Fold this sequence. Notes:
The structure holds 2 protein chains of 2 kinds.
Chain A: H1 3-24, H2 28-48, H3 52-77, H4 86-113, E1 118-119, H5 128-138, H6 140-161, H7 164-171
Helix pairs in contact in A: 1-2, 2-3
Chain B: E1 2-3, H1 4-24, H2 28-52, H3 57-87
Amino acid sequence: MNFHLILFLAFGAVCVGGAVNLLAQRHPINSALSLIAVMAALAGEYLLLGAEFVAAVQVIVYAGAIMVLFVFVIMLLNAGEEEETKGSRVAILFGVPGMLIASVLMAWVVLRHSGTEAVAIGALPGNPTDLAQLLFHDFLLPFEVTSVLILIAIMGAVVLASKPDSTAGKVE
Amino acid sequence: MVPLSYYLLLSGFLFACGVVGFLIKRNIITIFMSIELMLNGVNLSFVAFAAHWHALAGQVFVFFVMVVAAAEAAVGLAIIISVYRTRETLNVDQVNLLKL
C-alpha cells in the first residue's frame, strides 16, 4: 500500500461520497455543493495522473465558473425541495436497479479486459508547455471552431434568458 | 502505483451515478447537474487513458469537453430560467408541453 494508492483512495472516496450524496439530497443547493466536492476531488485525481494543467482548469472552470452559474440560478429561481410524485417513484423503481446492473457490468468488463499495469506518477509530460504546443499547433482548427461554438452559446443564452416582451419590442 | 482499471472503475461509477440522477430526479436543475457529473466521469477516463498510453492528446480533448460543458451550462440554464418564467415550476412532471 504505497502513498500514491492511499491518495487515490482518499480522493476517490470523496468522489463516490459526493456523487451518492448528490442523489440522496432533496434540495438542489445541497446537490450543487456535493457536486462541487466531486469536482474538487477529481482535480486531485488529475494531479495524481500527472495532468497538472487539467487539474487547475478543472478547479477554475468547473468548480468555479460553471458551479457558480448553477448556484446563482438556484438562488435566482428560489428552488425549494423537490416533491415526491408518481413519476419519481416509478423512476426510482427502475433507475436504481438499472444503475446497479450497469455498474456491475462495467466493473466486470473493465477488470476483465484492462490490464493491471500501473499508471506511474510524473511519467507523462503534462506541463502547460507541451499541452499548449499540442493545442495551438496540432489541434488549431478544433480550437478555433470552439470559439464559434462559444459565440453561438452566448447569443443563445442572451436571447433565451431575456424577457419575452423586451425582445419583442426590439424586433418591432 | 495505481492500476488503470481503478481509474476506469471510478469513472464508470461517476457516470452511472449521473445516469441514475438523470432518471430519478424530478428537479430540472438537479437533472442538469447529473449531466455535468456524467461529463466529469468521462473526463476522468480521458485523462487516465492519456496517462496510460502516454498520449497527451487525451488531455486536450478534456479541454474541448469542458468548453462544450460550459456552453451547455450557459444555454441550458437560460432555458431553465425561460421555462420557469412561463410555468412557475421546476418539476419536470409538470413541464409536459414543448410550447413556451
